[in-house]
Specification:
Rossmann fold, 6-stranded parallel sheet, 6-stranded antiparallel β-barrel, 29% helix, elongated
Length: 301
């Protein structure tokens, strides 16, 4: 898979999926699977994801995570487009002419039914179809996907994360919500009460689920085995009384691996969130914290 900037692209005969692709979910998968199918069955067709990157943090998927997903789905090109004044000022027709036709050489354009584009979002599916003959591409439109009468969307996933409903997040994304990072040294207080933890500092741009304790599955890079764990997301107020509650700057992802012994400092791990156990609690003392952790562990094992 090749990653290219939209203003450097010069492609021909492509199947293009259009969207922001934030929190790559099952609705996005419909579009991506379609362009991969077209690339696999149509002669000389290449699959392209044209993704519009919105400013700001709190990302459901970091760029590196999105690229990994796209590549696993067999995408040939990812065309990155920052949402800046240059792109936002394009008229719908200029977007079609200068990007879809001249830059991407689109033979197929695959979108969701509510896709809008161009200056002040004046372009839509009808606009694409109106210009499709002039610029020689076919438009393929997917209806909104629903699960339990709820539309699968990035905004819904954000709401589930904010409430700790990681089971619903996995239903909508087609995989568990995950946070990856390098194991760093902490205060090692967990060791003194029989609950050593692997501490990772989440990327400042990564959206965190509701502060609290979760049942998790842990992948250690370079180790094929998957381990059960208990993960606390938040500021750990029992042992960090000065941490700023709700601050991503001070937030930690601390995981106790079940049935594992060894030193993993400096290793990369991935924490997959399976189930919300309880919200984060400030205990009066470490002994009360230990009693709660024992109950948390019993609920996982």
């Amino acid at each position: 898979m090749e990653i290219i900037a939209y203003d450097n692209a010069k492609l021909n005969n492509t199947a293009v999926a259009l969207g922001k692709f934030e929190g790559v979910h099952k609705g996005h998968m419909l579009l991506i699977n379609k362009i991969s199918e077209l690339a696999g069955t149509e002669k000389d067709i290449k699959s392209v994801i044209f993704t519009i990157n919105m400013p700001g943090g709190n990302a459901i998927n970091l760029d590196s995570e999105r690229y990994e997903i796209f590549e696993s789905l067999g995408v040939d090109y990812v065309c990155e487009c920052p949402f800046d004044e240059k792109i936002s000022s394009l008229s719908p027709e200029d977007f079609i002419k200068k990007i879809l036709a001249e830059r991407l050489g689109a033979s197929y354009v695959v979108v969701g039914e509510d896709f809008c584009f161009g200056h002040k979002r004046r372009g839509n599916v009808k606009t694409l179809k109106d210009y499709s003959k002039e610029y020689n591409f076919e438009v393929i439109v997917f209806e909104k996907l629903k699960i339990d009468d709820c539309i699968v969307s990035s905004s819904s996933i954000r709401e589930f994360l904010d409430s700790g409903d990681v089971k619903k997040v996995a239903d909508f994304m087609g995989r568990p919500y995950s946070i990856s990072g390098k194991v760093t040294e902490g205060k090692k207080i967990g060791r003194t009460i029989g609950f050593p933890t692997l501490n990772i500092k989440p990327d400042i741009k990564k959206r965190l689920p509701l502060a609290g304790a979760y049942e998790t599955r842990i992948k250690i890079f370079g180790d094929s085995k998957i381990y059960k764990g208990i993960t606390n997301v938040g500021n750990n107020p029992t042992v960090n009384p000065d941490a700023r509650s709700g601050s991503n700057d001070d937030a930690l992802v601390e995981t106790h691996l079940i049935d594992y012994e060894g030193d993993l400092y400096g290793k990369m791990i991935q924490v997959d969130f399976i189930r919300f156990i309880r919200p984060e609690i400030k205990f009066d003392n470490v002994e009360k914290l230990k009693k709660q952790l024992i109950m948390d562990k019993e609920s996982v094992v």
